[in-house]
Amino acid sequence: MSATSSKRRPGVRPAIAVTVGEPAGIGPEISIRAAWARRHEVNCVLLGDAAFLAMTAADIDPDIRLSSLSLMAVRNGGLPHFGAERLTVIDVPLTAHVVAGQLNKENGRAVLDTLDAAIEGTRAGWFEAVVTAPLQKSTINDAGVKFSGHTEYFADQTGTPQVVMLLAGPQQGDGAPLRVALATTHLPLKDVAAALSRDGLARVLDIIHADLRHKFGIASPRILVCGLNPHAGENGYLGREEIEVITPAIEAARARGIDARGPYPADTLFQPKYLQDADCVLAMYHDQGLPVLKYATFGNGVNITLGLPLIRTSVDHGTALDLAAQGLGKADCGSMEQAIGTALAMANAVHAAP
């Protein structure tokens, strides 16, 4: 399966799957709002319970129109392209009634079914990309399905041996894009050093380089690499990971034609004078890079999974059950709009590639 196997027809908006996430959270609302806001440039196909989404849309704005299709109908006849005056929904029915802010394990399987439908749709050429709203891992696990997260599930279902988490977004002020990739993700801090290896970093750099070229259309990506320790180890006095692991991995990547540089001290790297010519920063662990990214992008960050044979973006926040319980109109759909826009830009880059 290629990054996008969809065949675009002239004059037809590209189609992107949007999984609406945990129904008791803010996912359905932000999915509808963002898809409606961007409907003139992209055909966002919502994957979720059609009746529940129709009710939610009517409460958000009576002018929002939805057209529902069954998954079987799309399998048999393909995805129809409605005009921008309405949103398409592929119906993935829930099992139980939804109460905003209250999790129900009876709906866990249906949430997972939306991901399966999105993957199926990219394989079949219905969609050029997938955008995912936040889900609640515990609901799926409580439903009896072992599930550790979107990223791992997409990797497993597509047979991808390794993926890389990338967060991206426009920076406050000049709006220049900031991209931060992670060498490790959700690990206790005490385990990070042991998880880093020359071969592992080599694979991460290869994935970042390949996807920046293919999915972002950057001909010669420049990657700046953080050190692990304070002051990037200070020549071994504050740790030897930079000397024994990170620097050799960078040198090997450069020998393969990858423009990777570093390791740099993380406390001084995130400055305009260093970032202005960089296409991506590779941080060694979660909280080394993401606090900077989330501060700089001010609620408009996007989570992108690199290395997959498809385009997948997501919001950079969770289900916000407490916010959902307060009723509609409280959630900010900025990150979801940005996720849709990023997925569209990536799909366009792949479509334009020779």
UniProtKB/TrEMBL annotation:
Cofactor comment text: Binds 1 divalent metal cation per subunit. Can use ions such as Zn(2+), Mg(2+) or Co(2+).
Subcellular localization: Cytoplasm
Binding site for a divalent metal cation: 186, 231, 286
One MF annotation (Gene Ontology) recorded for this entry: zinc ion binding
Cofactor(s) the record lists: Zn(2+); Mg(2+); Co(2+)
EC number(s) stated in the UniProt entry for this protein: 1.1.1.262
Reactions performed catalytically: 4-(phosphooxy)-L-threonine + NAD(+) = 3-amino-2-oxopropyl phosphate + CO2 + NADH
SUPFAM superfamilies attached to this UniProt entry: Isocitrate/Isopropylmalate dehydrogenase-like
Coiled coil: none
Source taxon at top rank: Bacteria
Annotated keywords: Cobalt, Cytoplasm, Magnesium, Metal-binding, NAD, NADP, Oxidoreductase, Pyridoxine biosynthesis, Zinc
GO biological process: pyridoxal phosphate biosynthetic process; pyridoxine biosynthetic process
Pathway: Cofactor biosynthesis; pyridoxine 5'-phosphate biosynthesis; pyridoxine 5'-phosphate from D-erythrose 4-phosphate: step 4/5
Flavoprotein as UniProt keyword: no
One GO cellular component, as annotated: cytoplasm
Binding residue positions for substrate: 150-151, 294, 303, 312
Family: Belongs to the PdxA family.
Additional note from the record: The active site is located at the dimer interface.
Oligomer and partners: Homodimer.
Designated name of the protein: 4-hydroxythreonine-4-phosphate dehydrogenase
